[in-house]
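Researcher: Following up on the earlier apo prediction. This time include the ligand. It's zinc ion, with the SMILES given after the sequence.
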Amino acid sequence: MRILLAFLCFASAASAADLRYWVEPCTRPETKCAEQDPLMAEWAFQDWARASAGKLHLERASQRRQANIRVHWAAANQGLYGEAVPFFEDGLHGFEVYVLPDLSGMGRDISQAVRLDSLLRDSIVYLTCLHEIGHALGLAHTNQFADIMYSFQFGGDIPEYFGRYRRQIKTRADIETVTGTSSNDRTRLVSILSR
Ligand SMILES: [Zn+2]
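Model: Understood. Below is the ligand-bound prediction.
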């Protein structure tokens, strides 16, 4: 989970609290995306909108070039779960968000666990969407293990980080309503949007 920190221009766009997003359909087999992955991204946007206490209004764009936040499915790259990269294109500031659907290269603990538990796999894709979209909304990393904006650079038990969310859901549909954010994440988002 890495962020290229250059979101200052975009942060002012975020304070307008009215952003458009786009999610890549699962059409490129080389990413090994799953049919449900675009829904994971949709739910992550909804999670942040709920976390914003009404300050963030997100609208789905039908075309990528119209969106401030663009979620793409990434092929395996540098061992990253995801990445958020700022762009400025056609007068529009925003972030290209990349999320890795194929977790087979993310270490033995994770790759074995997701083979045995598809809901853990969906949880990780969901939480990665949430983390990277958090960056796109202007949130930097924290050192608090409870936060979705926690960085693994601070260490900690990565399987447990994902596992504690997984234990809260019984079906994939539960992801829509079980937040992946902490109270600290929500407070920080509201603070950014209130500037
Ligand atoms: Zn990050």
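Model: Residues 1-3, 131, 135, 141, 151 surround zinc ion (CB under 6 Å).
Researcher: Noted. I'll compare it with the apo version next.
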